[in-house]
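If you are new to this repository, start here. Below is one unmodified record pulled from the training split, so you can see the exact layout before writing a loader.
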Amino acid sequence: MELTGKLKEKVDKSESREEAKEAIKDAGIILNDAELDSIAGGIGVRAPSTAELKRQKDKFPL
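And here is the target side for that same chain:
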């Protein structure tokens, strides 16, 4: 499945898998986890966002 336009932007800016899934659900599209993983752009394989990296750093300081 390929997302386009504003929905793709919302999904790309999502800071978590659940946030992305919610954006897709709000658009009237229901996906299971396997389908969510197969979306073009790869939510499951994208690099962590700055916010995700900050949360990890706060949880696991060096």
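Two things worth knowing about this chain: Helices lie at 5-13, 17-26, 33-37, 50-59. The two ends are 40 Å apart (CA to CA).
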